[in-house]
Design a protein that fits this description.
about 250 residues; alpha/beta; Rossmann fold; 6-stranded mixed sheet; 4-stranded antiparallel sheet; globular
């Protein structure tokens, strides 16, 4: 469904990504892990269409990604809700340019609010929402346009441990219900193994993919099982191999 082939992204003399490849199947849940600075968020921004200054190919269903569209939803670490708008209005913003009637938009927004468990809070403003509720609202906003793929950039990183675990379960429920492909960037190896069908490990200097680890565990997943522990150790091992001390590579263009 999504193909990232030979992508290189430079910021001046610094090479953030080099010859990076990523493949995501229809309806697949993929997690990307790696040390800070390895290009995870840069890659997500390229897929979202927020950044188009790169070499290589990024295709969604055989078509090169150009700019942002409702076909790709994105959720950031912070909910980024507009404080002067209600929860309903924050979600409706995503449909401003959608070719839908007012009645159709109302139906879609109500359905997404129900999906993330926020029915009854339509008129609440962001200041009145807990961190978990605000992030669920951000997920609803990203899904309201029925994207083919949902991009998640550390969406649970700022939450407390209990809320984070609950929202991990919510993400799985939403993923199964919507059938949407998901790419999750996270620093949490347990979260990556718990949620995804494949864990992609990235290394830095310059950023590139070093491992693709298939997570073939039955649902619901048991974090305390031996198989779960084996996969966690495999991901940690790949991360450890990637973090071996090596010189920083900076290319100077002549």
């Amino acid at each position: 469904m999504l193909e990232v082939r030979g992508v290189t992204r430079r910021f001046g003399d610094f090479v953030a990504l080099r010859d990076t490849n990523l493949f995501v199947g229809e309806g697949e849940f993929v997690a990307i892990v790696g040390a800070s600075g390895c290009g995870k968020t840069t890659l997500l921004r390229l897929i979202a269409g927020l950044d188009q200054d790169y070499v290589g190919e990024i295709d969604l269903r055989g078509r090169r990604i150009v700019g942002t569209t409702l076909e790709r939803g994105i959720v950031f670490q912070e909910p980024r809700l507009l404080p002067w708008l209600s929860l309903w209005e924050n979600i409706a913003v995503a449909l401003d340019n959608a070719p839908l009637s007012a009645a159709a938009k109302k139906e879609v927004i109500a359905a997404q609010i129900a999906l993330v468990g926020l029915t009854g809070f339509e008129d609440a403003y962001p200041a009145a929402l807990s961190g978990g509720m605000a992030q669920r609202a951000a997920i609803a906003r990203a899904l309201v346009g029925h994207p083919s793929i949902l991009l998640l950039d550390e969406p649970l990183g700022a939450l407390d441990a209990i809320t984070r675990m609950r929202l991990q379960e919510e993400l799985l429920r939403i993923w199964r219900h919507e059938g949407v492909s998901m790419i999750l960037v996270t620093h949490d190896v347990e979260e990556a193994v718990f949620l995804s069908q494949k864990v992609v490990v990235m290394d830095s200097h310059p950023g590139h993919v070093t491992a693709n680890i298939v997570v073939d565990l039955p649902a619901p997943r048991d974090r305390s099982s031996s198989d779960f522990g084996v996969l966690k150790r495999e991901v940690f091992g790949a991360l450890h191999d990637s973090s071996a001390v090596k010189p920083v590579e900076i290319e100077y263009l002549i």
